[in-house]
Design brief:
The chain is α/β, with parallel strands linked by helices and 615 residues long. The protein has ten helices and 36 strands. It has a 15-stranded mixed beta sheet, with no helix packed on it. The protein has a four-stranded mixed beta sheet with strand order 27-34-33-30, with helices on one face. Bound molecules: 2-acetamido-2-deoxy-beta-D-glucopyranose (9 copies). Residues 1-24 form the signal peptide.
């Protein structure tokens, strides 16, 4: 049976070939001058032959007519009325500026009409009448300014309309009426300044929309309120669009969202939150610098995340937390120095990883990629090391299994000046505490105050960029233990430093406080993220016993220092014995300072310008 079928198939092929060859020789139907005709396929190819008008004598049964790349300027009424069988008509790359009323009337079977790259400014009513079967209309790259009511009236079969790269500034309310089956609409790179919500609401079958507005820096609330059936939305090439209002995507139920070539500086977490069916998210070519932890978890179905050509410097741990179907991450051409396994909900689902084009530091943080390199699909472009220098330029597929554990290493964070520091100072002075660290990758440093708050880079007590803590205009209440924590992927380290600030006059100070180290601290909870309010509001979990001891000892030491100061002041005042109760103050009279001509006279009066004060 199988062999038979094959033979029959072969026979038919040979037969067709013979018919084809015979057709070519005999010209069963005439071909217009300068055109090429493929008789057996019923194709008339008049592309690129410098025609200035539609040729005469096109075979009435032609299926495809290509008139692209010519010099056509005008289409007359019923220009193609004798081509009732035509399925495809290509008029792109001409100079068409006028298409007359009913120009395409009679093309009842036409499926595809291409008019891109012409000079159309307006589409008069009735131009597209009679195109009952048309599925695809391409009017991109013209100069169309406006869509009037009922422009596409009779095109009930139209599925795809490409109107991108026009100068469209206005879409009238009923412009799209009658497009009952339109599935895909491309309005990319147009000049529309307000959302044509009413016009779009006519398109009840629309599933893919490509769009861009000019003039908005913030995508307004309710921009797509009436487009609940759209599944794929693309907003691209909006270089001014910097953010999305929190309710801008409300009303949509998308499976795919692309927001590319815009000016977004962060992932629009909140506007995305309700898109629980989203599977594909593309934020490529936006100046986004980081992906924050735990903020994409609502997108339960998300499978693909693309952020190509951005400014990504960090993908935080737990960035893709909760995404159990996550299978593709495309972050090529960014500024990432690493990507930690902790970013993902689970490594098991990840299949495709594009990490190329990033200045990667090859150390223990990327070990997971190395270990999975045979299972992961790098899409043909494996990651490349940029640092350390001796590994520069090596791709991840180069390393032998033996090399990996030796080369992809980290050095635990370590504080160098380990000696316990004790600093005493007078009120009003400025002191600095050093916390020099070593480690690979460079450890992050945090300082915790005696009141157990994270110290920031601003304020009177602040952390300098080199990790040094600076206490300016020290006050008595600044006294206590300060802690420096250093940590990196490989480990952590901490030291404590005690500060004693005494109110002047200086008092001797007796140190009663034993040293404390924060053994019960959960460092992970206070490691600074880009959002310090999040980490501080989480609180610092440590056990009650430590808290009680610290509080008690802290107040004991404080009270004792105050007491010692008072005692000192008392003895000092007693020992001074006789105390003067008056003071003489001499002063220059105000008039003397201003009136220079009277300077001499004022000088003479100096002796008398004295004041006696009672203390
Ligand atoms: C149509 O003609 C042009 C110019 O002669 C040629 O480049 C092109 O390949 C032809 N197209 C087809 C489909 O034959
Ligand atoms: C018409 O011809 C041009 C140039 O030869 C070609 O690029 C285009 O694809 C053709 N159009 C169709 C519909 O085949
Ligand atoms: C449309 O926008 C482009 C780019 O912003 C601009 O160059 C062009 O002049 C605009 N056209 C109209 C008609 O406003
Ligand atoms: C969008 O709506 C939210 C909540 O209703 C509101 O807080 C916000 O100001 C609105 N934004 C704009 C740009 O209108
Ligand atoms: C993009 O946003 C930045 C600030 O976030 C702004 O300085 C810049 O002008 C914006 N670019 C455009 C084209 O609007
Ligand atoms: C949203 O889209 C999903 C997937 O296309 C579909 O299963 C779901 O029913 C839709 N929900 C609503 C409210 O339209
Ligand atoms: C990643 O993005 C680049 C640039 O957009 C694209 O060329 C490539 O196909 C994408 N890779 C995958 C696996 O999607
Ligand atoms: C850190 O910077 C401050 C101010 O720039 C400087 O005074 C201090 O000496 C530096 N500390 C270290 C350890 O280099
Ligand atoms: C800090 O180091 C200690 C001991 O090396 C370890 O038990 C602890 O888990 C580390 N904490 C963090 C947050 O890495």
């Amino acid at each position: 049976q199988f062999v038979n079928l094959c033979t029959i198939h072969e026979d038919t092929a040979i037969l067709l070939w013979i018919v084809g060859v015979a057709g070519a020789w005999d010209s069963p139907w005439p071909c217009p001058q300068r055109c090429e005709c493929l008789h057996e396929l019923l194709i008339v190819n008049c592309s690129s032959v410098h025609m200035t008008s539609v040729p005469e004598g096109i075979y009435a049964k032609s299926l495809h007519l290509n008139l692209s790349n010519n010099h056509l300027k005008i289409l007359e009424r019923r220009q193609f009325s004798n081509l009732a069988e035509l399925q495809e008509l290509d008029l792109s790359e001409n100079m068409l500026s006028i298409i007359k009323f009913e120009a395409f009337l009679g093309l009842r079977r036409l499926l595809t009409l291409r008019l891109s790259q012409n000079r159309l400014k307006i589409i008069p009513l009735g131009v597209f009448s009679g195109l009952l079967s048309l599925r695809l209309l391409d009017i991109s790259k013209n100069e169309i300014l406006i869509f009037l009511d009922h422009t596409f009236r009779d095109m009930a079969s139209l599925q795809k309309l490409d109107a991108s790269r026009n100068d469209i500034v206005f879409i009238s309310k009923l412009a799209f009426s009658g497009l009952l089956n339109l599935q895909e609409l491309n309005l990319d790179r147009c000049n529309i300044t307000s959302a044509p919500a009413l016009a779009l609401s006519q398109l009840t079958g629309l599933t893919r929309l490509q769009f861009c507005w000019v003039g908005y820096t913030v995508l307004p609330n309710n921009s797509f309120r009436w487009l609940g059936w759209v599944r794929e939305l693309t907003i691209s090439n909006c270089p001014w669009l910097g953010s999305l209002a929190t309710k801008s995507l409300i009303g949509l139920n998308l499976t795919s969202l692309t927001l590319s070539y815009c000016n977004l500086s962060s992932v629009p977490y909140v506007p995305l939150q309700h898109l629980v069916y989203l599977r594909y998210l593309d934020l490529s070519y936006n100046p986004i610098t980081s992906i924050q932890p735990n903020l994409l978890g609502d997108l339960l179905q998300l499978q693909e995340f693309h952020l190509v050509g951005g400014s990504l410097q960090k993908v935080e741990p737990r960035a893709f937390q909760g995404l159990v179907h996550f299978r593709l991450l495309n972050v090529s051409s960014n500024q990432l120095s690493t990507l930690e396994e902790m970013a993902f909900h689970s490594m098991k689902t990840l299949q495709v990883l594009r990490l190329d084009g990033n200045p990667l530091t090859c150390d223990c943080r990327l070990l997971w990629v190395l270990h999975n390199r045979l299972d992961l699909d790098f899409d043909g472009v494996p990651p490349v090391c940029a640092l350390p220098v001796y590994m520069q330029g090596r791709t991840f597929l180069d390393f032998s299994a033996a090399e990996v554990p030796r080369l992809f290493t980290c050095r635990q964070a370590r504080i160098l000046n380990r000696k316990p520091q004790e600093v005493r100072t007078d009120e009003g002075h400025t002191v600095q505490f050093f916390c020099q660290v070593d480690g690979d990758p460079t450890p992050s440093i945090i300082w915790v105050s005696p009141h157990r708050t994270l110290l920031t880079t601003t304020g009177r007590i602040r952390v300098l960029s080199n990790g040094t803590l600076e206490v300016r205009y020290a006050q008595v209440q600044d006294s206590g233990y300060y802690y420096c924590f250093a940590s990196n992927t490989a480990g952590n380290d901490s030291i404590s430093i005690s500060l004693r600030v005494c109110g002047s006059p200086e008092s001797s100070y007796q140190n009663h406080s034993p040293q404390f180290f924060l053994e019960g601290w959960n460092l992970a909870a206070i490691i600074p993220s880009d959002n310090p309010t999040v980490s501080t509001s989480q609180g610092i979990p440590f056990d009650m016993k430590t808290l009680v001891i610290v509080m008690t000892m802290g107040s004991v030491s404080f009270l004792s220092s105050v007491a010692v100061c008072f005692v000192f002041i008392f003895f000092w005042s007693q020992s001074k014995g006789k105390i003067k109760h008056t003071a003489k103050v001499s002063f220059v009279p105000r008039s003397a300072a201003i009136a220079t001509e009277k300077a001499e006279r004022a000088e003479a009066n100096m002796e008398t310008a004295k004041l006696t004060m009672r203390l």
